[in-house]
Specification:
heterodimer, A: Rossmann fold, B: Fructose Permease, two-stranded antiparallel sheet, about 40% helix
């Protein structure tokens, strides 16, 4: 894992965050751009506290989460209320994170927006007749 | 169609509820009974945000649900009623006798003073007594975080020590 400055947190269920970051690191060597967080076995209050602490500790400006209705997303929205500049992106995929790590010259919000557009474009059904 | 599931979950509306239970139950609505959230538009928007547009979310207080419950009980869709703590569910059982026949413990996580029972259920003595009180009123209490898991009856749950399961 690289020693890059953490710019974003990846948060979600189970090993989602560590798995996604591991994949980013294997592909780009830039997994250190992200800090992982799991909601496993935590109450809503504890998820929120853990996320806020991680943001304060790392200075991350973006939180990527796995599921719109998930507790990590609810916690991120809660933290966002106290940190209005925090960017929250939900329902992410690997292409989203891969693009984000290469947008280091952009401000966090712009990098997140760029990554989301890339993620949308990467979605495809492969191999079905008539599908691209 | 009566409400399908009465669940205590301190995460309230989250992935296990919306997707884990929502998909197999073909869930049409969620009722969250929480006095604090029922009085806060911001909190309501927070919990409504991730719910699919074809699933309704209703926010009720302990007082208002007693009146509105008939509407939910008559709703033709499948529904879940949530509280975030045991005491709120206890109040509902007492105020609406015979309406709630079974209570699902879906998530009561660690906090100081609570002892581990399951990885998603931690209880203190007062909470254990409150659950026994529900059972003594004929309510079937069991712990089950997701539909695919085995429901663990209250007696078995209270005999557990440790959160490894």
């Amino acid at each position: 894992m690289s020693n890059a400055t953490v710019r974003a947190i990846v948060a979600g269920h189970g090993d989602f965050a560590t798995g996604m970051i591991s994949a980013v690191d294997q592909i780009t060597g830039r997994g250190g751009v992200f800090a992982p967080m799991t909601n496993r076995d935590l109450s809503m209050d504890d998820i929120t506290k853990a996320l806020e602490s991680l943001i304060d500790h790392t200075g991350a400006a973006v939180v990527f989460t796995d599921l719109p209705a998930g507790s990590a997303t609810v916690a991120a929205r809660r933290v966002q209320r106290a940190h209005p500049d925090l960017v929250v992106v939900t329902a992410i995929s690997l292409p989203v994170l891969l693009d984000f790590v290469f947008q280091g010259d952009l401000a966090a919000a712009d990098a997140a927006r760029h990554a989301v557009e890339k993620g949308h474009g990467a979605m495809a059904i492969v191999g079905l007749p008539g599908a691209r | 169609m009566p409400v399908d599931l009465y669940r205590i979950d301190d995460r309230r509306i989250h992935g296990q509820v919306v997707v884990g239970w929502g998909q197999p139950l073909d869930l049409g609505f969620i009722v969250l009974v929480d006095d604090e959230i029922a009085s806060s538009d911001w909190e309501q928007e927070l919990y409504r945000m991730g719910v699919p547009p074809d699933m309704d979310v209703f926010f009720e207080s302990v007082d208002s649900i007693a009146t509105d419950f008939v509407r939910f009980a008559r709703d033709a869709r499948h529904g879940i009623l949530l509280t975030s703590d045991i005491d709120t569910m206890r109040q509902l059982v007492e105020r609406m006798p015979n309406a709630i026949r079974a209570v699902n413990l879906g998530g009561i996580h660690h906090r100081p003073g609570r002892s581990p029972k399951l990885r998603y259920v931690f209880l203190d003595g007062t909470e254990e007594d409150a659950l026994r009180g529900l059972a003594s009123r004929g309510v079937i209490v069991s712990a089950q975080d997701v539909p695919a898991a085995r429901p663990i009856p209250l007696d078995e749950l209270l005999a557990l020590h440790g959160a490894a399961k």
